[in-house]
Amino acid sequence: MKYAITVITPFYNVDREVFQKCCGSMFKQTIGFERIEWIVVVHNSKEEYRSAVYELLGSYDNVRIMVLNDGKHTPSAPRNYGLEHASAPYVGFLDSDDMFTPQCLQKALFHMKKNDAQITWFRREYELESYHNRPVTEIVLWDQTREEIIVDKDNWDDEKMFSGVCGMVTSRIYDKRFLDKNGIRFDEEVPFGEDYLFNLECYGHAEKICYLPQMIGYHYYINSGSLVQKSSKDAQTLIAFAKGYQKIFDKGLEYGFFMNAIISGLCCVLAGFMIGSDSLTLEDRQTIKEILAPYLEQITPLRVSKLYSEKAVRERYEFPRAVILEPEKYIGNIGYDTLIAFDAKSAQALSPYQIVLRNILHRNQKTDIGARYGFTKILTLTGFRSNVPESDYDIYEPLIKLQTNIGESGIITADPIKSYMFTLGKMSNPKLIPCTEIQLEPLKQLLLDNCVGKRTFLMLESMPQKDRFNDNTYVNTAHGSILSAVFADQDLSPSEKNHMFTAPPEIIFPAELTDLTYIRLLFALADRNVDQMIAPNTWEAWCTLRFIEKNWKNLCADIASGTPAHFGQAVSDEFREIITNRLTADPDRAAELTAIFEEGFDDPIIPRIWKKMTRLIAFGEGCFTVYTESLRRYLGDVVHENGCYMELTALVGTETKKNGLYALDPRNAFVEFVPADADSDGKTVFAPDVEIGKRYSLLISTYSGLYRYRLDDVVLVEFMHNSTPFFSYDYDASQTVRFNGASLTEHTICSVVKELQNETGLPVCDFAYMLNEQENGLVVLLETDHDDISNIDKNTISDLIEKRLKKDDSYRRAADGGSITPARVEFMEQESQLFYRDVLMFRLNFPPDFIKPVRYIDNPVKERFFKSRIIHQEDQTYAND
Amino acid sequence: MSMLSVTKNLEGTKLTVNAVGRIDTYTAPQLDDEVTSALEGVTEFVLDFSQIEYISSAGLRLLVAWQKTMTAKGGRFSVCHLADSIYSIFTATGLTDFIDIQK
Questions:
Q1: Spelled out in words, what is the top-level CATH class assigned to the domain A5-228?
Q2: C-beta atoms of B68 and A880 within 8 A
């Protein structure tokens, strides 16, 4: 025989550069390239690709280039064509975008001949074009400490032989005479899985098979253009797949082989194609069910092994049954991307977006909620959407009461609850949101990333852990809980913890609940090395910086003396002593600060106080926007960053450098998007499916037990990158005012106020809005930096506001139609919003972190309060009912 | 510019403060300073409104702060001689729920 082995390569439109690598691997074969008969079957390929083959290989005597144009779309026909023309006693298969390792053919043939085997098998390694195209596992159950394992009918091991990736012909070489004698060829009517059928036929006839567990012979390249990996398939194709499967399964069962893994594996692949198909109708799905049901119904779950985890076993059993046997469940293209319950070892890698939901459901599957909504049975994102209803706090309130009042657990989250985050609802009704350690972990990490190595003026504290609930938890702010997690971090040294913040731990974790603004400032102002400030929001930052402006004399006096003499809050003697002991007299710094403050506040004060200051991190979107603008006066060129966008301890987005947009951050919450535009159908969409330029409200699902929890926040998607939405915070939907056809969001009214400021120079430092007495017109309440409005022409301001509101389509239509009256402006006393906050804080005994400024005055209590704050120009008296 | 004059009368541990004029953004810090420095050892603090012409949000914030301070000390804070117009402010803003009003 002239040649030692024939290698058959079906070639279909492969880039020259890629095929060159394939050729290179053949040239490097240690058996000697000239001893190989290489048959390259150019199959249905375009001219430019075909000519490249001739250019590269046309001059070699041992290479036979054959052209086959038959319009078929599987490699079976070119492989059969090659088999018909192969002259060597052994044959192997090499795909045109892959490579053999240099010793592959020599070693494989050596063992083949030595053992007189009909088939020799070796290992494959892979190379990825992209991270997301991870292949099915190449892990095996064979004893890998052995170089060679011989299998014959007396040593048959079904499970090892027919588990994992057992269908590939490219990891084997075959005795050509054995194939010819038994008439074994590729079935050209089987469009997918044809390799499996070929190998099952071989195994059915073979006397001896040689396994080489240690030998990596094949280098497999995964690109997005490969025939095998294309994921979008039409109905006709998928039905053809199912019919092809029928032949494969029948053949294996005919020989009495262990078929569980092959049936479940191939059906999983088909199920994945099915849920990603745009054209599969219910009738088509039922056809597929009829074909495959007899096989799926007879298989049993696989054994748990290193090949298949417990989860993979369950999913390989349940997923194809769910999709194929219940065709009415999966209508329409829900995309393979939506899958969440498929083991990463056995399928394409899941994205972080899918993984977070999978982990949330897996972690909480045994909770009461998990059991009720069948978390263990949820396999896809759409399955989650179908099985778990949207929720709001009304659902959770009784459950949380059971936890806090009785000490119940495991109702909504399997993890121990560390604390409850207190928040206020629309009617100022209190809500308790559970926090667990895993929920807080990425938030803790974010704070550490921002603070380690820096010196931070922190404008917040934890709440005192005083009153315990019956489930051994406390109330805290979200930031307080995150701080607690940071200080509990074992990897952080005590000196790192002490250095991070200007205030000592006794102030960050005070034993008493009181306003510590003054004390925070004593420590921060005394420290020349502060290089950043962190506040919960820009309102708090602005209040703190204004406090400096109003109280610098007392602050400097106390810095000089090292005592909190002017600290006016009522605290215990013990706490006052702790504070005093931590302060250090610094008359030099006090004198330095006094000189700075005596120069006035016209120039930005922050860079003058702290020369190393680089940034302020404080959420400043939505209702806080007006304060973000006011901060400019103090900050100058010091950068303001919003930091992360967090809601109810769900990390929704992380601020990016792309125009300050937030990138969806799936570390501790699964976020769904509900179209917010008036003409939408309100059906939730998943992150990869949102549209640029559209607005969405959000549903969050978290580790600590909120599932599809409705938020009022509305975001605007502005950019997509790798299926990740980048968005800006737009407005709080609960602050939208609707009247007689007009619908105005908080964002719209805030923009109008901002434009008014820019155009008139009116020093607006806060605002709110409500409907007039007849509820047919808007009243905008402005708070300026002085209460003397005698020189302000309210009518002019009202006209300007009306003009800008008419840029909103709904408002303009309603105004033009005469169903609403023109907007009017009123001025309210300075510090009215702060007064409202003070009253709420007094009633609830909570720190200011919880309280947002009032924008839409939407209930009688708020209305009475704010109406009483309106200044009358005529006599600067009170506007009472 | 607003004007405010403050007189303080201490009888034992009871402090009565008479403010004359307007309590607004300009005069509130002055009143705050005067009261804070006088609260040491006081168990009862009364603010007399008989000569207060006007009190703005900035001034009302002080009342909330003093209520908090006196409660924390185990003492008592109250206001007296409110004009009807100011009393209506107290009801509209909810201060009547937690500030003691003497007739």
A1: alpha beta
A2: no
A546 at the B interface (CB within 8 A)?
no
Distance from CA of B36 to the nearest CA of A (A): 6
What pLDDT, on the 0 to 100 scale, is given for residue A343? 55
- pLDDT for A815-827, tens place per residue? 999 999 999 999 9
A786: nearest CA partner in chain B: B25
Beta strand spans in A71-200 (E): 90-93, 99-100, 119-128, 149-152, 172-175
Give the number of other Cβ atoms within 10 Å of residue A788's Cβ: 13
Bridge partners (DSSP) listed for residue A353: none
pLDDT, tens digit, 9 for 90 and up, residues A632-690? 999 999 999 999 999 999 999 999 987 889 999 999 999 999 999 877 777 899 998 89
Which residue from A719, A850, A828 is spatially nearest to A780, judged by alpha carbons? A828
**Element of type H or E holding A360:** helix A352-363
Alpha helix locations (H) across A762-825?
A: 794-805, 809-816
Q: Which residue of B has its CA nearest to A875?
A: B54
Query: Which residue in B93, B95, B97 has the most chain A C-beta atoms within 10 A of its own C-beta, making it the best mutation to test that interface?
Result: B93
Selecting from A570, A864, A878 the residue whose C-beta is nearest the C-beta of B73 gives A570
CATH architecture of B4-96: 2-Layer Sandwich (3.30)
Q: With a cut of 0.85, is the ipTM above it?
A: yes
Instruction: Please tell me if residue A880 touches chain B, with a CB cutoff of 8 Å.
Output: yes
Of residues B25, B72, B73, nearest to A831 (C-beta): B25
Neighbour-count burial of A866, counting CB atoms closer than 10 A to its CB (0-12 exposed, 13-18 middle, 19+ buried):
buried
User: What type of residue is A164?
Assistant: G
Q: What secondary structure does DSSP assign to A294-329, as a single string?
A: HHHTT--PPPPSSSS-HHHHHHHHHHHHHHHH-GGG
Tens of pLDDT along A28-85? 999 999 999 999 999 999 998 999 999 999 999 999 999 999 888 788 999 999 999 9
Nearest to A776 by CA among A746, A809, A814: A814
Interface touch A830/B61, C-beta < 8 Å: no
Classify A309 in phi/psi space as left (phi over 0), alpha (psi -120 to 50) or beta.
beta
Query: Where are chain B's structural domains?
Result: 4-96
Question: Which amino acid is present at B30?
Answer: Q
**What are the domain boundaries of chain A?**
5-228, 231-339, 736-871
Locate the chain A residue with the closest alpha carbon to B72: A570
What residues of chain A lie within 8 A of the CB of B72, using their CB?
A: 514, 569-571
φ and ψ at A36, to 5 degrees?
-105, 130
Identify from A515, A548, A835 which residue to disrupt to test chain B contact, counting B C-beta atoms within 10 A and taking the largest count.
A835
**A867 at interface of B, judged by CB pairs closer than 8 A:** yes
Q: How far apart are CA A816 and CA A806, in angstroms?
A: 9
Q: Cβ separation of B94 and A880 shorter than 8 Å?
A: no
Buried b (16+ CB within 10 A) or exposed e, A542-580: bbbbbbbeebbebbbebbbebbbebbbbbbeeebbebbe
Mean pLDDT of B34-50: 91
**Ranges of chain A with pLDDT below 70:** 1, 128-137, 222-232, 330-350, 426-428, 873-881
Q: Across chain B, what does the average pLDDT equal? A: 91
Asked if the C-beta of A570 comes within 8 angstroms of chain B's C-beta atoms, the answer is yes
Share of chain B above pLDDT 70, in %: 97
Instruction: For A1-14, give the DSSP string.
Output: ---SEEEEEEE-S-
Confidence class for position B103, pLDDT limits 50, 70, 90: low
Q: Is A561 in contact with A567 (CB distance < 8 Å)?
A: no
The Cα A414–Cα A366 span in angstroms is 7
Nearest-CA distance A426 → chain B (Å): 18
Cα of A542 to nearest chain B Cα, Å: 16
